[in-house]
Amino acid sequence: MDYFARKNYNNTAMKTIRILSVFLLILSSQVQLTGQDFKYLDNKSGLSDITASNGIDKPVTIKVIYDNYVHENGFKSDWGYSIIIEGLEKEILFDAGTRPDIFEFNFKKMSLDADKVDLIVFSHEHGDHTEGLPAFVKMKKGIPVIIPFSFSDAFKNKMVSFGLTPVLVKKPAKICDNMYTSGEFTYQIPEQALVLNTKNGLVVITGCSHPGIIEMLKEIKSTFNKNIYMVFGGFHLLDKSKNKMDSIIAEMKAIGVVKCGATHCTGDKQIQMIKEAFGKDYFELGVGNSITLN
């Protein structure tokens, strides 16, 4: 091989090595981002501590931080959903709404204390339930965020960048005394609900109910082996006709639901139908509202 041929060969080889090095660096970075050892919520006692007659022995309060509707004057409404749950062994922020500025405004106006929040739970990955989070992590980080296993790697890594610890959920599990995750529903959009154990029965707390509110209630009742007393949150019924709504309401009552509160993505007309059907056992949500469960 003459001088020029050797020089061209060496240049080509060096270029190939440089390209390969860059590729390996990118690949290594992706492995670091997507291959993290995230924790799983896997309570070994399962649901065995739930009985037909046990449940919370002191009041639990639900406060609505973010919603399409306003319950108390002076708060801001927006398409999205977030509540805080007080009175349990752990204080829980469930979803975080859409806009950080609105979340922060309502949070502070309600005189809530971020330092008291022990963990965050996200129902599903949609922005109207998650994008308000930057406002919260300005006030507190370093706590667990419980999310369905099938959330995207990008979302999981975003939680890490916010200084939170992702904890993944596959199956129903205990979060703290009397509070459980339903486990991941793997219908098109992965989603979980919260399940509170009370002496009156289970209280199911939903984000958007994309897997179907009836399907979720049936599975929770079967898995937890206890009657469902109350359900509230977003039911995603915007496109349902009156006939379909009549059927859904009838199925809710057949499942055993006594009290109901519908909001966010349920739909104005659909909320009105549920309100009329449940009468005195219907309760409103809306920003600024506070619901006490005994």
Provide a compact summary of the structure.
The protein has 294 residues and is an alpha/beta fold.
Gyration radius (Cα, Å) is: 23 Å
Largest sheet: 8 strands, mixed
**Main sheet strand line-up:** 1-7-6-5-4-3-2-14
Q: What's the architecture of the largest domain in CATH terms?
A: 4-Layer Sandwich
The best one-word shape is globular
CATH superfamily of the largest domain: Ribonuclease Z/Hydroxyacylglutathione hydrolase-like
Mean pLDDT across the residues is 90
CATH topology of the largest domain: Metallo-beta-lactamase, Chain A
The residue fraction in helices comes out at: 25-40%
In CATH's first tier, which class of the largest domain applies? Alpha Beta
Report the β-strand fraction as a percent range.
15-25%
Number of extended strands: 14
The H/E string reads: HEEEEHEHHEHEEEEEHEHEHE
Distance between the termini: 88 Å
Which class of secondary structure composition applies to the elements? alpha/beta
**Uncertain stretches:** 3-7, 19-35
Number of helices: 8
Number of domains: 2
List the helices and strands and how they pair.
Blueprint lengths: L2 H32 L4 E2 L19 E7 L15 E5 L5 E3 L5 H10 L9 E3 L5 H4 L2 H5 L6 E5 L4 H9 L3 E5 L3 E4 L2 E3 L12 E5 L2 E6 L6 H12 L3 E7 L7 H14 L3 E5 L4 H11 L11 E4 L1
Parallel strand pairs: 1-7, 4-5, 5-6, 6-7, 11-12, 12-13
Antiparallel strand pairs: 2-3, 2-14, 3-4, 8-9, 9-10, 10-11
